[in-house]
Design goal:
- The chain is mainly β.
- Helix content is about 0%, strand content about 35%.
- The strands form 9 sheets. The chain has a 4-stranded antiparallel sheet, with no helix packed on it. The chain has a 4-stranded antiparallel sheet with strand order 7-8-9-10, with no helix packed on it.
- The radius of gyration is 21 Å and the shape is globular.
């Protein structure tokens, strides 16, 4: 039945409408399960008019600190921020003014008993709105004058500080006050930031560190002091950095390691306080995959000895942090380019437990789950969406699910428990 079967032309990902009258010649056909929603929900959410989603969604689970209901927040290229209830139904829609593509992830933050969402768009506008449950209340808007593709980030995990940070296409990293969006006093724009920014800052604002790291489209990785924006160290790769660096920082140390990828086809590891210094045991030639990399590396500090990332040839890589080598059985070959940052979900992270899996989206339109230890595909995966999946996946441990937006305009929530 055409309502339940989707046929794709494998090499190109071109959708082929099923026909009951035309003959089909094929050497083989593989039926892959659609992206089934968690029980009792109506996912995927589909907006009235399809608008591609390129940035990761965000979620909020109410634990009694506010009066608003739990929701998933999604921005898309039509310029709307949408709040979707955990059951997959629409909660509210907020339109940027003027409408401009949103390619940054929303950032929900609880402040003073209310829930606020920060987001930015291609028009160069940064917004703070309040979730009033029946709608979104405007708080402030600041226009920076350059397209914003870098996600807004706080200085700490709980976002309890007074500042937010983001990069822009005008070769600047901005620091803004959460209260009113005004510029942070004493903040400077480091000359070392010499190109447009599309990735997100990695920040360690703990005492004695107080630093952030960002990749640039001219191939440079730059460290910044979070107090004033000055840059103490940088490093030049051989290609553009279109991804976000990953800081492996379980302990407070100036010698933590920053991992970052480049379109020159390499995964790099450098000492965070001196970006020209290789960490002990890391190969001088770095980890070369001979394919451009747009995917951000991902790991869990202290949770695993590996880092994961994908490349343009469709390979998912598992690399040892200690020495830059790969284990037998890796890489895993997917059916298209991987621009989605993989997310590693260890067995202890979900309430129900389970095995260690890595989840990622792919340009072939599927979302994959791969055993993090063996490199084998999880049973029942991949699952199909209606278009390439380039957003980073988000794990919601409260509902044992992952959240993914697709270029088909839909937001998918998938159960990943055992």
């Amino acid at each position: 039945p055409s309502a339940t079967v989707l046929v794709r032309d494998g090499p190109s990902g071109q959708r082929q409408e099923p026909s009951l009258t035309s003959p089909v010649e094929t050497s083989s056909i593989t039926l892959i399960a659609p992206a089934a929603p968690p029980a009792g929900t109506a996912w995927p959410y589909s907006p009235p008019a399809a608008a591609a989603i390129y940035s990761a969604a965000a979620y909020y689970t109410n634990s009694g600190e506010t009066s608003v209901s739990s929701a998933v927040y999604v921005g898309s290229v039509d310029g709307y921020l949408r709040a979707i209830r955990k059951d997959g139904s629409l909660k509210w829609t907020y339109a940027a003014s003027p409408l401009s593509a949103i390619r940054t992830s929303p950032l929900p933050v609880v402040e003073g008993g209310s829930l606020y969402i920060y987001f930015a768009n291609d028009n160069g506008d940064v917004y703070k709105v309040r979730d009033d449950d029946t709608g979104a209340g405007f708080v402030w808007k600041q226009s920076l004058g350059a397209a914003l593709r870098s996600n807004i980030i706080c200085s700490d995990v709980s976002c309890s500080g007074s500042k937010i940070y983001l990069g822009a296409t005008d070769n600047k990293v901005y620091c803004r006050n959460k209260a009113d969006g005004s510029a942070c006093p004493g903040w400077s724009y480091a000359p070392a930031v010499s190109a447009a920014i599309s990735g997100t800052l990695a920040i360690d604002d703990r005492t004695t560190i107080n630093s952030g790291w960002i990749g640039l489209e001219d191939g440079k990785i730059v460290a910044l002091h979070t107090a004033d924006g000055t840059s103490p160290t940088s490093y030049q790769t051989g290609g553009a950095i279109k991804s976000s660096p990953y800081l492996d920082a379980k302990v407070v140390s100036a010698n933590n390691v920053v991992f970052f990828t480049s379109t020159d086809g390499k995964l790099y590891a450098r000492v965070s306080s001196n970006l020209s210094q290789l960490p002990a045991g890391w190969p001088a030639g770095d980890y070369n995959v001979d394919s451009p990399i747009y995917s951000s590396p991902f790991s869990i500090p202290g949770g695993t000895g590996y880092i994961f990332f994908g490349d343009e040839s469709g390979k998912l890589h598992q690399v040892k942090k200690a020495d830059g080598t790969s284990a037998a059985g890796w890489p895993f070959q997917a059916g298209g380019a991987i621009r989605s940052s993989p997310v590693f979900v260890p067995n202890w992270y979900l309430p129900q437990g389970g095995q260690d899996y890595v989840y990622f989206g792919c340009d072939d339109g599927y979302i994959y789950a791969v055993n993090a230890n063996t490199g084998e595909l999880r049973n029942g995966w991949p699952v199909a969406t209606g278009g390439p999946v380039r957003t980073d996946l988000v794990v919601d441990p409260d509902s044992s699910s992952i959240i993914a937006g697709s270029t088909d305009g839909k937001t998918y929530v998938l159960y990943i428990g055992p």
